[in-house]
Amino acid sequence: MKRTIALILVSLFTLFLLSGCNTLRGAGQDIEEGGEAVQDAAS
Description:
86% of the residues lie in helices and 0% in strands. By secondary structure, the chain is mainly alpha-helical. The longest helix is centred in the C-terminal third of the chain and has 19 residues, at 24-42. The N and C termini lie far apart (43 Å). Belongs to the EcnA/EcnB lipoprotein family. This is Putative small secreted protein. Keywords: Cell membrane, Lipoprotein, Membrane, Palmitate, Signal.
C-alpha cells in the first residue's frame, strides 16, 4: 500500500514539473537553467 501511494505521489510530482514545459525543448531549457543555477551557487 505504501508503495502504491509513493508511486502515485511521484507520478503527480513528475506531471506537475512537466506541465510547465510545452515541449521537450522547453524541458531541456528548464533543466539547463536549473543546472546553471546550481553552478552559480557552487562558485
